[in-house]
Specification:
This protein is of the alpha+beta class and 270 residues long. 35% of the residues lie in helices and 11% in strands.
């Protein structure tokens, strides 16, 4: 178990994993945060919970199997650990695992995160959920019109609009949440990235979120939308797939647009 705050990586403890489950299968006892997957500890294997700060030299020496050969360092602040570096589950090499096992014997410390209070200012999920699909759609329109917001450019992911434009996902969500709550929402108030409430609500609103270095899958979508699909290219069953995609594509975004048009029509009548 690890913790990153203030640019410092801390080792909290360790346990033997008995199983890994998806969010739909429930949460382990004592867990109250949202994630795509959860690690369940084997009974009686957990070490005592304590903060143990790891040096940057040790962090930089860690190696992972499967191609990820080091912990990502923060691209914005030199000499600090990237906050999202440990979001994904990666398997340490045996040598690096042994290093962390030895670090479990290091004395506990009081975590000094006075320079990074973002986790203390983040809003609960119930407030984040007030950014409804119609507000998200309106915020997409506003950002396309260069509306002012307190967010920078995206660093890892882009939200793809219906027109194929790219927007910063957190900026879209923050703008929508500001309208929902009636006050300014800033990056410190919520987190983004895979598994976050922010990304989940944007996806539920019908928008795609893709890594910045990935091409948009527009060709495949356009092919599925064509009625004249050659039989030799798409065998039996392709028509059913096309109809399914046509019906299911961006349902929440469609509802949001209808809501916006309905509001405009009412304002014209009034």
């Amino acid at each position: 178990m690890t913790n990153i705050a203030g640019g410092v990586l801390r080792l909290l403890g360790a346990f033997t994993v008995s199983r890994v489950t998806k969010a739909s299968e429930g949460q382990p006892p004592g867990v109250n945060w949202e994630a795509q997957e959860y690690l369940w500890p084997e009974v009686g294997t957990a070490t005592a919970f304590a903060f143990r700060e790891l040096s940057l030299e040790l962090v930089s020496s860690l190696r992972f199997e499967g191609g990820a050969n080091r912990v990502a360092m923060d691209r914005h602040v030199s000499g600090q650990v990237e906050r999202n570096a440990m979001r994904v589950v990666r398997r340490l090499t045996p040598a690096s695992a042994k290093v962390l096992e030895q670090a479990l014997g290091v004395a506990a410390v009081e975590p000094d995160i006075s320079g990074d209070r973002r986790s203390q200012e983040r809003l609960p999920a119930e407030l984040l959920k007030q950014a409804t699909p119609d507000l998200i759609f309106e915020s997409v329109v506003a950002l396309l019109d260069d509306a002012a917001h307190g967010f920078g450019e995206s660093t890892d992911y882009d939200l793809i609009t219906d027109e194929g434009m790219r927007l910063p996902p957190k900026a879209v969500f923050g703008h929508a949440l500001s309208r929902a709550l009636g006050r300014e929402i800033l990056p410190k108030h919520f987190s983004g990235g895979e598994g976050s409430v922010c990304f989940r609500l944007l996806l539920e609103a019908g928008y795609r979120i893709i890594p910045k270095d990935r091409m948009q899958p527009e060709v495949a979508e356009l092919d599925l939308d064509r009625d004249e699909i050659p039989a030799e290219v798409y065998p039996e069953g392709a028509k059913t797939l096309k109809q399914h995609v046509s019906r299911e594509r961006k349902p929440a975004a469609a509802r949001a647009k209808k809501s916006r048009l309905h509001q405009e029509a009412r304002s014209l009548v009034l």
